[in-house]
Description:
Elements: E1 16-20, E2 23-26, E3 31-34, H1 37-40, H2 49-59, H3 72-84, E4 89-93, H4 96-113, E5 121-125, H5 134-140, H6 143-146, E6 156-159, H7 164-170, E7 175-180, E8 183-184, E9 190-191, H8 194-207, E10 210-214, E11 238-241, E12 252-256, H9 277-290, H10 295-316, E13 321-327, E14 330-335, H11 339-348, E15 351-352, E16 354-356, E17 360-363, H12 371-390
Parallel strand pairs: 3-15, 5-6, 5-7, 7-10, 10-11
Antiparallel strand pairs: 1-2, 2-3, 4-12, 8-9, 11-12, 13-14, 14-17, 16-17
Amino acid sequence: MNSSLFPTYARADVAFERGEGAWLFSANGDRYLDFGSGVAVNSLGYAHPHLVSALRDAAERPWHVSNLYRIPQTERLAQRLTTATFADLAFFANSGAEAVECAIKTARKFHAANGAPERYRLITFEGAFHGRTLATLAAGGNPKYLDGFGPKVEGFDPAPFGDLAAVEALIGPETAGVLLEPIQGEGGVRVFSRSFLKGLRELCDKRGLLLVVDEVQTGVGRTGTFLCVEQAGIAPDIAALAKGLGGGFPIGACLASKEAAKGMTLGAHGSTFGGNPLAAAVGNAVLDVILSPGFMERVGRLSPLLRQRLAELADHHPSVIEAVRGEGLMFGLKTRVANTALVAAARGAGLLTIAAGDNVVRLLPPLIIEEDHIAEAARRLDSACAELERGPKPQPGAI
C-alpha cells in the first residue's frame, strides 16, 4: 500500500475503529485485548466516561491561548502534581522527550545558577531510552538510534546497569547529576533494585549532584505508586512525566523541587503548546481517577496476580519464555524466540503487546483492568506460545 508517511515505523496491518475499556476493535470487527496501552499511554483504557466528558467540555472552551496568559486548568494540574509528589514546581510540555529535555536543562541550569556552569554532564545508564530528540538520544546512547544524525550531543556519561561503584568512578568536576529510568522500558523492562536507588540518592547527596528520574513510562501509577522511585523510599530532585498523564492526550511534565529549579527563571525555557487548556483539562481528569482513594493500591494488588500468571506461562513454555521481569502493571517477557515473533503470535491470538530491547515483549495494560482481563491475557499468550512451539511464525490476525 502506498503511503505519504515517513517510512520510519514497521506498522502492523490492522487499524482500530473504536475502543472500550481494555479492548480495541478493528475496522473489520476483530476484537483485541490491549496489553500495550499505546506504549503505556492509555492508562485508563478507551472511552473512559470521565475522560470523554472532560474532553468534550474542554472542547467547547478555548483549546489554546499560549503561555503568554494565565491558564487556570494548567495551574490546577501543577498544584495537584506537586501535592502528589516531592516537587514544588512543574513545567508542561507535549511529550516525554520534551519533558526529559526540560529535566536535563533544569539540572544544568541549577549548577550555572550556583556559579558552576562547567557542571553540565549527567551520568546515565547503558540500555536507557529517554526520547528521540538529539539530546535525549545522546542521553540514551543507543548507537542504532544515533546513527546518521551527526555528532552526538555532549554531556552524557553512561555507566553499566545497576553498578553504583561505576557511577561513583564517573563523577568528576563537570558532573551535574545522574539520570535514569527506575525501570528501563525500551531497554527491556530492566528493574533497578530499591537498594541501588537508595544508594544512588545517598551518593548524589554526598557529592552535591541532582538525581533526575525519567518516569515517562513508569510514572502516574503504573507501578502502584504515583512515581516508581517512591517504592525505594526516596525522592528525586527532578522528574519527567508524560504517557499516562494524558490518558491518550499528548502532555508531558517536568517536576522539580524549588531548589533544583532555581535556575529556571524568566525566559530560561518555554513551549508554545505545552500545558494548553485542552491538555491540562484531560490531565486533571486523569488525576481525578488515578488519585482517587484505593486506585493505586488496586494496581499493587493486581501486580502479583499478573506476575504469577506470567511465571506459569514461563514454566509451561520454557522454549519460548526465558524470564519474567517488572513491577506493578509493567512487565516484560524475556524470550528465547525473536520477540517480534511472540508479539505477532499474540496479536494473532487477539492480544496486543509491545516489543522492547534485550529481546523482551512488554505488557503494559491499562490500569483499569480486572482479574478476568489478566486471565484472558494469559490464555491468549498461552495460545501464542503454543503456536510458536508448533512451527512457523503465525500470520497476524485477531481471533
